[in-house]
Amino acid sequence: MHFGSTLQLCYLPGVQKPVSDFKQVKTNTIWLGIFQLAKMVFPFLILPILTRRLLITTYGDITFIKTIMNFLQIFIDFGFMLSATKEIAKIKNNPAQIQQILADTLLARILLGGMGFIVILIASIFLPILSQHFVFSLLSYLTIFLSIFLFDFFFRGLEIIHIMTIRFVIMKTISFILTVFFVKNDSNIILIPLFDILSSLIAIILVFIELQKSNLHIIKPRLKSSLQSLKSSFVYFLSDISATTLNALSTIIIGLVFSSTEIALFGVSIQIIGAIQALLGQLASGIYPNMVRQKSQKFIQHIFKTTLPFVLLFTLLVIFCLPLCLQILAGTKYTAASLIIQILAPTIIFSFCNTLLGWPTLGVINHQKQVTASTIISTVFNLAILVLLLIFNHLTLYSVAITRVVTEVVLFCIRFYYFRKFRHEFNP
Hints:
Blueprint: H1 4-11, H2 21-53, H3 56-77, H4 80-90, H5 95-126, H6 128-132, H7 134-146, H8 152-157, H9 161-182, H10 191-213, H11 223-257, H12 260-294, H13 297-330, H14 338-344, H15 347-362, H16 368-391, H17 397-421
């Protein structure tokens, strides 16, 4: 697969034909939509296979481990998907500076990856599920570590999303096919992360081939610059880890308090709702580079007006078509998750609004602290409610789901307040 010529055209001055901002946003959004659609489709394809072939308790354990890995993924990413993307977008016509950012960011993430390995070892001591599936957990973490070498921030910054998307589809297709043919029961679960590792290595090879074809190389990193990039990216990391905590906190609390079966039920619910949220939320990623350049209030308002009806439609489809879809996706063992998903459905609307009001809106006018603060406040609120429910013996799968909806509403109120407060700082 050859993308090199396309990549070169994206950053060499005077080569690429000018395109309108709207057209560029449309292209970015389409490719990011395909990317996110793939991220949603592949788990949905593998879901009925795993839920039917594995014991519900085993699937619950895997769900818990994946939740922990999501935290470690955010730690290794450390906000670079926003900070490094922003830097690349500013210097897209300077290959020498791009190479230096690639090298410095790579070193920073490798350092973080080493720290993440220590974390997973310590966590395995205190968390029974991790210790019971220690090899599975380590191999799952290796997949996370390999993501360091995929350079998604680079492709997003240059707004050449198609390369990243095609690579991702190839990677997931390989892993999916191997899982379908070789993971038959609980005794084969170790193959799941092994196949992910194999597909990641293939994806890394494709990425480095494209870098070479585009005359880009990984040069010697600068330790001081790498450490500085960690410092400048910290505010983005803090927001990301807060958001991940907000999304994963419920699953972790359930995993610590309830059985593996209940983890599985809630995990399936979160996976279905989260996939829809992620698909719709990619619009924010699509408009981010454009908003960095023009900071237009009219543009963000137009995005809200044209997209909210579709978000509402998605929400209604989830509520009314869920029972049949759930039976197809997960099987009869998971029918108890129907009510949980229906309770969680309103989070689709509020999560979409919160994503748009975050980095693409408040972030581009240098109110990163407000974005991060809103997420932290909401996360603390969520944790406080869950603790109170636990203390007063009202912690159930349904009360956890209701708390999650209320938390999203709280987050929306805070971010909308900031949007109104700072609206004069946008361009017309």
